[in-house]
Write a structure and sequence with these properties.
ATP binds at residue 667. The strands form nine sheets. The chain has a 23-stranded mixed beta sheet, with no helix packed on it. Strands 27-29-31-33-35-37-39-41 form an eight-stranded parallel beta sheet. Strands 11-13-15-17-19 form a five-stranded parallel beta sheet, with no helix packed on it. The chain is built from 16 helices and 52 strands. It binds 2-acetamido-2-deoxy-beta-D-glucopyranose (3 copies).
Length: 971
């Protein structure tokens, strides 16, 4: 191009050209430096991160363009960052000021991390920002007033941080702002009046701060508002009665936890879109508007903890109005001054109602049974009112109920068993009423229960094992201050998740079951004010989390288990007013005299000096028998391989002790089993002072913890080398390989031995002892085949002076000895010497007939007694154990009893003399069996009589059978 004659056109063109070129270059330079700035800003951001457990920033490296880095979005044309989204990545760090250089971004979302810095002022340079989500971090400092310049901002979320200072009034410039949420910070001052200018504002949420003053009236002019939440601040004053006229879109109105006073505005019902109203925990007074029925969308109304209502039923009229709110799900008005009778109309609430809480008022009347219609109830709480009458049986229909509290009222009658239909129930409180009767066993169906409060009623009867066996109970089981009696069921050990167990102030008795040591999560255990007896089980030591233990005012005796001092968290121990003795430990909870109460136990000594107890004179040296085994030794030497028998309450092992040469039988109680503790105690007590050659000799009772710290109870006996009579009588059934049988003389001796033992127990050993469980498996044979009666797990001790020799027996025990138990036991539930006599009679019949009383053939009508009786004396062969007849005579006698009869009269040779003798012996002994197992207890002989007869039978038998034998030593 030639420029010899420049004209205007070219000049202008050139200028335009130059202008564009320069601007283009400028723009390009800006774009590339802009991109670098963005990348640099991101790298600075990355540097500010101190912890990135998810490895978000691994992709933030040179091999990728930053627009492809995790969490980054760029604009398509200019490749400038438009959004940064790193939500919930567990990031720790600070937000650097460099992010203010990302001029094109619109969205920053760093919510739910742990950013600790202030909000950088430089952020306010990013004029394109529409959404800032910084909630759920640890941001500090103030909300920058400069944010007011970001006029495109629509959503600003700061909630759940540590922001301080005031809400800057400059935010009123944010004309596009729709959402402002800054709840759960430490913001102070008042809500600026200027906020009323935010005409697009939808959600304004500043609850849980320290904002004070009245709500500026300007806020109520924002007609766009759908959610207004200023709960838990320090606001005060009353709400203008007309506030809601200008809020046609309001759906959520939350002002709970302030100091608002005065009445609830009547205009509330004009905010016709309202769904959720929370006015709780203020000082509202007077009537609740009775036009709330207009609020057709209302789902949630919470008015609790105000001063609403009076003792007049009129103040409950709003309830009738609310029955028109067909969407109502939750209604709370607990903790007010409502009184008067609860209107029946509450039964007409929307069936959508899931929650009704009206506790802590003074409402009277009965619980309307028609509330059974509200089938979607999940939580119903009417506690701490003045309700009377019964718990409606119909409430069993409310099968979705999870929390039900009728506590602290004046309800009477019984707990309906329909409660068992509430299978979803997790919290159930009836405490402090006037309920009577027992706890319905149907409660076992409530397998989601974790808290049960039945305390301070008039409930009685035994504690149902169904309740103690509810393994779901994890929070509390409170049965205190009632009239429950009987034992604490061993099922208590099934409460493996429980924290608080309170059975105090009842009439409970018996031993504290060792299974309580299985409730490993127990922290608070209250058993005071009962009649518990026996020793404090050392199993308490396995309750490692125990903090509070109260066993005061019982009849506990023996020593304080030393193991209690090992409980690391125990900080309160009350053992006062028992009959404890011996040395008080000095460590653990026992160090601190103020954490401990031991008064009213006059035989205690030692302990820390602050307790002021007398010194223990010498170390409490109890006479320890040389061979009394240490438990540790027992557990160490008992191998299950050595199992020699088992019953419902226990397993018996063969064991060895270093101190004792002979083997021992260790009977380990199965504490899971109902009645095992009772059985253990019975056996320990019964055998405490008795000695007889035909009783199994108890060496000791152990009650302690095993190596796993579980409660362990065992009885240690002499080992009986020849096992039980049962095994000898029924070797095949008992799986014995060896075919062995007892001869007639052996059986005779055993019968005499057992009779001697019973005679001794009944008549000769001070307090009569009723065995109650006699059967062949409880008759053990030692190496010399001498019988030893064992298993006193069902035994009863009677005082001679007591006018009745009868006492109640447990049905659990009876089951174990079906067939041997006297018929009158079943009818009267009583035990007696005659009962043992019956069992003995059956035992004899079994020994010589080899037929069990439980044999199939005795199922219908005829029993063992009848069977033998009918055959005696002539048809002996039909009933007698064939092995009792010597082989050489078996043939003679086998064909027909009549032949034997004939031989008996016609032949007088030796063989027939023997036959006749055997026969006579068998008939006599079976007659004894029959006479002893007579149905009527009055007609049965006593053991002393029978013993004489048995000796006579034996003598006759011996004289003829083996005239040259030495006399058998049998007694
Ligand atoms: C991002 O990655 C995609 C796919 O790997 C690729 O096609 C694209 O060019 C990358 N973007 C940039 C800006 O490098
Ligand atoms: C926060 O993020 C964690 C991890 O992603 C998530 O489990 C949690 O539910 C989130 N919490 C909130 C309040 O968003
Ligand atoms: C932050 O903004 C200030 C004021 O505009 C500026 O001087 C400073 O350089 C900015 N900081 C960064 C790291 O860009």
């Amino acid at each position: 191009m030639k420029f010899n004659q420049p004209n205007l056109y070219t000049l202008v063109h050139l200028q335009v050209f130059l202008f564009f070129s320069i601007n283009l270059a400028c723009l390009q330079a800006n774009a590339s430096s802009g991109k670098e700035t963005d990348q640099l800003a991101l790298l600075k951001f990355k540097q500010g991160i101190t912890s990135d457990p998810q490895g978000i920033f691994n992709s933030w490296n040179d091999s990728l363009h930053f627009c492809n880095w995790t969490g980054i979005t760029c604009g398509r044309r200019h490749q400038r960052i438009t959004s940064l989204v790193l939500e919930g990545q567990n990031l720790f760090g600070s937000i650097p000021p460099h992010i203010g250089n990302m001029l094109f971004w619109r969205l920053i979302n760093l919510q739910n991390n742990t950013f600790r810095s202030e909000i950088p002022l430089n952020l306010t340079r990013c004029s394109q920002l529409k959404m800032i989500y910084l909630q759920w971090n640890n941001l500090t400092g103030k909300i920058p007033a400069e944010l007011g310049s970001l006029t495109k901002l629509e959503k600003l979320a700061f909630y759940h941080n540590n922001l301080t200072g005031e809400i800057p009034p400059s935010l009123d410039n944010l004309s596009s702002l729709r959402v402002f949420t800054a709840r759960e910070n430490n913001l102070e001052g008042s809500i600026p009046n200027e906020m009323g200018r935010l005409k697009s504002l939808n959600i304004f949420s500043v609850g849980v701060n320290r904002l004070s003053g009245i709500i500026s009236p300007s806020l109520f002019n924002i007609t766009s508002l759908s959610s207004l939440a200023v709960s838990l601040n320090q606001r005060s004053g009353s709400l203008p009665d007309n506030i809601c006229f200008t809020l046609p879109n309001l759906q959520t109105f939350i002002i709970d936890g302030n100091y608002f006073s005065g009445p609830i505005p009547n205009s509330l019902s004009n905010a016709s879109q309202l769904q959720m109203v929370a006015f709780s925990s203020n000082n509202f007074v007077g009537q609740v508007p009775t036009n709330l029925g207009n609020l057709q969308s209302l789902r949630w109304l919470n008015l609790e903890f105000n001063n609403l209502g009076s003792n007049s039923s009129n103040y409950l009229l709003f309830l009738t109005s609310l029955t028109n709110c067909s969407n109502l799900e939750t209604l709370h008005f607990s903790g007010n001054n409502f009184g008067g009778v609860l209107p029946d109309s509450v039964a007409n609430f929307s069936t959508r109602l899931t929650t009704l809480h009206l506790g802590a008022n003074q409402i009277t009347g009965i619980i309307p049974a028609a509330m059974e219609n509200l089938v979607n109830f999940i939580s119903l709480n009417i506690e701490d009112n003045l309700f009377t009458g019964f718990i409606p049986d119909q409430f069993g229909k409310l099968q979705k109920l999870q929390a039900l509290s009728f506590g602290v009222n004046r309800l009477s009658g019984q707990i309906p068993s329909s409660i068992g239909n509430l299978t979803q129930l997790s919290i159930f409180s009836l405490l402090e009423n006037k309920l009577k009767g027992s706890i319905p066993s149907s409660i076992r169906n409530c397998q989601h229960l974790y808290g049960l409060y039945f305390s301070a009623n008039k409930l009685s009867g035994e504690l149902p094992k169904e309740v103690l066996g509810l393994t779901s109970l994890s929070q509390i089981l409170n049965l205190s201050q009632n009239s429950f009696n009987g034992n604490l069921p061993t099922e208590v050990g099934k409460l493996k998740n429980i924290n608080i167990l309170d059975v105090s102030e009842n009439n409970l008795s018996g031993e504290i079951p060792g299974t309580i040591g299985d409730s490993l999560t127990l922290e608070y255990l209250h058993m005071q004010g009962n009649f518990f007896q026996g020793t404090i089980p050392s199993c308490f030591a396995s309750l490692r989390g125990l903090q509070h233990l109260d066993l005061s005012r019982n009849n506990l005796s023996g020593q304080i288990p030393k193991d209690l001092q090992e409980l690391p968290y125990l900080q309160y121990l009350n053992l006062s007013f028992n009959d404890l003795e011996g040395e008080v430990p000095k460590r653990g909870v026992f160090i601190n005299a103020s954490a401990l109460s031991l008064i009213g136990n006059n035989k205690l000594c030692g302990g820390v000096t602050e307790l002021g107890l007398p010194k223990c004179a010498t170390r409490m040296m109890k006479k320890v028998k040389s061979h009394t085994p240490k438990l540790v030794v027992v557990t160490a030497y008992v191998v299950p391989l050595n199992l020699i028998g088992s019953g419902s309450f226990s397993s018996v092992y063969k064991g060895f002790l270093p101190q004792v040469e002979r083997p021992l039988a260790v009977k380990v109680l199965n504490l899971e089993q109902t009645g095992a503790i009772k059985s253990f105690m019975a056996e320990c007590n019964a055998l405490g002072n008795v000695r007889h050659r035909n009783l199994v000799k108890r060496i000791t009772c152990c009650s302690s913890l095993d190596y796993k710290s579980y409660a362990f109870k065992a009885l240690i006996f002499e080992y009986m080398g020849n096992g039980s009579l049962e095994k000898w009588l029924h070797p095949c059934e008992e799986g014995e390989n060896q075919k062995r049988s007892l001869n007639l003389l052996q059986r005779l001796n055993i019968a005499i031995g057992v009779a001697s033992a019973l005679h001794y127990l009944h008549d000769l050993c001070g307090k009569p002892i009723i065995h109650c469980g006699l059967k062949p498996s409880n008759v053990l044979l030692d190496d010399d085949m001498v019988a030893h009666v064992s298993d006193f797990g069902l035994a009863k001790l009677f005082s001679i002076n007591s006018n009745s020799s009868l006492s109640q027996t447990s049905t659990t025990g009876i089951k174990g000895i079906v067939g041997y138990v006297a018929p009158e036991y079943g009818m009267s539930g009583l035990t007696s010497k005659e009962g043992d006599v019956y069992s003995y009679g059956i035992l004899v019949l079994e020994m010589f007939s080899k037929r069990r009383p439980t044999d199939e053939m005795f199922k219908e009508g005829i029993n063992l007694h009848d069977f033998v009786k009918a055959a005696l004396p002539k048809r002996l062969l039909q009933i007698v154990d064939p092995t009792l007849l010597p082989r050489e005579i078996a043939n003679e006698v086998c064909e027909d009893d009549e032949i034997v009869e004939a031989k008996e009269t016609n032949h007088h040779d030796n063989l027939s003399r023997v036959i006749v003798n055997v026969r006579q012996c068998l008939v006599s002994i079976l007659e004894i069996g029959v006479a002893f197992s007579l149905e009527s207890p009055m007609e049965r002989k006593n053991m002393a009589d029978v013993l004489k007869e048995l000796h006579l039978i034996k003598k006759t038998f011996m004289d003829i059978q083996m005239p040259r034998n030495k006399p058998m030593e049998d007694d």
